[in-house]
Amino acid sequence: MNTIGRLVILVRDYEEAITFYRDKLGFEVFVDSEESSLRFVHLRLPQQKDMGIWLLKASSSAQRDQVGRQTAGEPCAVIYTNNFDFDYRRLSENGVHFTKPRCADTNAEFGHFVDLYGNEFVLVELKTVAAD
């Protein structure tokens, strides 16, 4: 094994999910194709070409029941930033809901937010440690 390619997120509707992830979070669509009645939608952050999110439309009642709850209330991903203040403000202004107030400790500044279905993500800026 070498790398992780995609994080799979179950969605109710492709268009509403694409709109949220693209317009509110800043992801870009780099695959949107249909083969044998299956649609493949892959998103990524513009700065990270090799890792992304695969949106997968829930097709069974069991899958639909899990939309927004795939990780049982735990974060499904951590997204790193080099400028927490800028991204926190940008996401908040785009209508992204932060579920826990921004916090800081000796290693990082972070905040928890949810997508349109309730999947939780953590926005993190790691603090640099000065060399001795």
UniProtKB/TrEMBL annotation:
UniProt domain VOC: residue ranges: 3-126
Record SUPFAM superfamilies: Glyoxalase/Bleomycin resistance protein/Dihydroxybiphenyl dioxygenase (SSF54593)
UniProt cross-references to PROSITE patterns, sorted A to Z: VOC (PS51819)
Coiled-coil blocks: none
InterPro entries: Glyas_Bleomycin-R_OHBP_Dase, Glyas_Fos-R_dOase_dom, VOC_core
Superkingdom assignment: Bacteria
Protein name as annotated: VOC family protein
Organism: Microbulbifer echini
Phylogenetic classification of the source organism: Bacteria, Pseudomonadati, Pseudomonadota, Gammaproteobacteria, Cellvibrionales
